[in-house]
């Protein structure tokens, strides 16, 4: 369908300025007929009431739908499907804006548009996800990013089982965006704004990054941009581009750069653990992620993820080298993916870690990681000796350092 209703989704942490932006758009629609879906976790939908108070809504041309009883990306999926479908079928609107709750991640919201219900209905049949916009708080983003506090500490969760940190949420919102708007620029200096822009560009290399004051932004930058591509968005964080060999451009003025560390020897578990838990003194590490290989658990791949002050490690799975060939994929694509990383001596076992940071000496970092690898004597001792090495990582359950 070429006449599907175009949709922009607004994401951003609590207090970043989404509602201010929404108000501005509704008051400066440039003759567009705009429908709005507002989602908020509180019982009293403050965001919705602000829109109703500040904008005179003509019921013949506007539609405001408040969803205030759950998360836009899970419990409300069917409600959202029904509401967006109804708005699209009415044919009275040129555009739909969805403001997600401050603690919603953009990826599940986007996935809602690919979801088909029991009757085979999908939002994508009637609506077209056009742009994912994330509003970043110019004053508080870096503070929140490095603090690594839990959402629960701010009294904001999706329930008892929601153990996410603020850093988790911020990185998801930034990495998945097509457009990043930096709010409150009147409250920070131009140099602080430029530095924050450089940091955000290091975390998301394809998004358009723009300053925003009092919600004012050219509508052409957030409506009908045609920027959204689900496959690219899900696969294009800066760290993943570096892993694929698509080197991320550096922002030399502020020292923002990235690198991929690769090696075909396992880490000594004690030395690597000490490297991870020590105080970081090599510039400012913003983001790191990837897989690692421990000698003490040589059959298994470890996963590593760090954003700001939050660090996690755990079990990623078993290296294909130690999986019986009878259990390997039988399709060509699956086999090619395994063989792409295959080495005659080590199979697919490897270190593959990406680091994005500010003013980091990557030669020093590489040398420090090399020192964590088994030396020649330790390699020659063999796997039975490796398994006896002191291993502070403990059992392979996800751990937070």
Describe this structure in words.
By secondary structure, the protein is an alpha/beta fold. It contains 14 helices and 13 strands. The chain has a 7-stranded parallel beta sheet, sandwiched between helices. Strands 8-12-9-10-11-13 form a 6-stranded antiparallel beta sheet. Helix 7 links the parallel strand 6 and strand 7. The chain is globular.
Topology pattern, helix = H, strand = E? EHEHEHEHEHHEHEHHEHEEEHEHHHE
Radius of gyration: 23 Å
Fraction of residues in β-strands: 15-25%
What is the global morphology? globular
Tally of DSSP helical segments = 14
What's the helical proportion of residues? 25-40%
Terminus-to-terminus distance:
49 Å
Low-pLDDT sequence parts = 40-48, 53-61, 68-76, 238-243
**Number of beta strands:** 13
For the largest sheet, list the strands in their spatial order: 3-2-4-1-5-6-7
Secondary-structure blueprint:
Elements: E1 5-11, H1 18-27, E2 34-39, H2 46-54, E3 63-67, H3 77-90, E4 95-99, H4 106-111, E5 127-137, H5 141-147, H6 166-175, E6 179-183, H7 190-203, E7 208-211, H8 230-235, H9 238-243, E8 256-263, H10 269-277, E9 284-293, E10 300-307, E11 310-318, H11 332-340, E12 351-358, H12 362-370, H13 376-381, H14 383-386, E13 399-400
Parallel strand pairs: 1-4, 1-5, 2-3, 2-4, 5-6, 6-7
Antiparallel strand pairs: 8-12, 9-10, 9-12, 10-11, 11-13
């Amino acid at each position: 369908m070429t006449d599907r209703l175009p949709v922009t989704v607004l994401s951003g942490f609590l207090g970043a300025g989404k509602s201010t932006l929404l108000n501005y758009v509704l008051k400066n629609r440039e003759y567009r007929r705009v429908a709005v879906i507002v989602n908020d976790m509180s019982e009293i939908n403050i965001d919705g009431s602000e829109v109703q108070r500040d904008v005179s809504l003509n019921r013949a041309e506007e539609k405001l739908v408040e969803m205030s009883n759950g998360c836009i990306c899970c419990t409300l999926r069917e409600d959202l499907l029904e509401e967006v479908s109804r708005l699209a079928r009415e044919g009275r609107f040129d555009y739909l804006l969805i403001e997600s709750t401050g603690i919603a991640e953009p990826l599940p919201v986007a996935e809602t548009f690919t979801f088909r219900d029991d009757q085979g209905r999908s939002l994508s049949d009637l609506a077209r996800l056009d742009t994912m916009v994330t509003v970043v708080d110019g004053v508080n983003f870096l503070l929140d990013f490095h603090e690594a506090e839990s959402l629960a500490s701010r009294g904001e969760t999706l329930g008892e089982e929601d153990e996410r940190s603020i850093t988790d949420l911020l990185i998801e919102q930034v990495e998945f965006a097509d457009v990043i708007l930096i709010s409150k620029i009147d409250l920070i200096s131009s140099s602080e704004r430029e530095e924050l822009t450089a940091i955000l560009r290091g975390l998301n290399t394809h998004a358009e990054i723009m300053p925003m004051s009092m919600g004012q932004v050219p509508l052409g930058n957030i409506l009908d941009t045609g920027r959204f591509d689900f496959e690219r968005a899900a696969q294009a964080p800066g760290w993943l581009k570096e892993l694929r060999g698509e080197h991320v451009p550096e922002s030399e003025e502020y020292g923002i750069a990235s690198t991929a560390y690769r090696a075909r020897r396992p880490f000594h578990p004690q030395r690597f653990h000490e490297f991870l838990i020590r105080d970081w003194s090599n510039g400012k590490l913003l983001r790191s992620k990837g897989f690692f290989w421990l000698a003490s658990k040589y059959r298994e791949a470890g996963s590593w993820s760090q954003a700001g002050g939050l660090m996690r490690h755990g079990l990623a799975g078993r290296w294909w080298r130690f999986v019986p060939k009878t259990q390997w994929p039988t399709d060509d694509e699956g086999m090619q993916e395994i063989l792409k990383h295959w080495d005659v001596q080590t199979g697919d076992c490897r270190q593959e870690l990406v680091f994005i940071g500010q003013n980091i000496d990557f030669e020093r970092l590489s040398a420090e990681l090399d020192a964590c690898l088994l030396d020649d004597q330790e390699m020659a001792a063999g796997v039975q000796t490796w398994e006896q090495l002191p291993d502070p990582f403990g059992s392979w359950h996800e751990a937070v350092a």
